[in-house]
User: What shape does this take?
Amino acid sequence: MRLVAGLGNPGNRYSLCRHNMGFLVLEALAKRENININSNKFDSCFGKGVISGVPVVVAKPQTFMNLSGISVGKLAHFFKVDIEDVIVIHDDLDLPFNEIRVKAGGGGGGHKGLSSVIDHLGGSEFVRVRLGIGKPVQKEMIEGYVLQRFSEEEMKILPDIVTRASNAVVLAISSGTQVAMNKFNVRVTKNSSKKEV
Assistant: This one.
């Protein structure tokens, strides 16, 4: 069993904000894999299904971003998912917009949602799919920046990012984290999903 959690904030007002990249990818992944996110329990909206022959639970924590770990911890405990079998999809200020990275383990990197997941899982050995959102010039602008809606230019690129991130999750499940890292941890050219050569 794998647990895939996309991080974000519940409610329509946040639906197309940078901080909700995790929700966007999780929803697209679930739709593609014919998994209905129709259960409301464990402070989460979640669904059960199969990806690449592997039983999965896909979830959107409903606790708001900074308390995401409450939901992820409850789900992992109930479904008896080992920490190494948890995949967390989240936005990342340290990556440029349109960049995706797959990573196993590590700290919270200043991401409060990620830190909450680490606290409630009791470790950091889970897999992360990091979605670059870039960062504002001034550090004090970060809170407003992550809660801003995507720009028109970003909206044009967003569908491709969501598709690539969904592919990264599927590959991590089907072939392992290292294979997904080798394929997706590459730089992309501006406004393109192509690898730099």
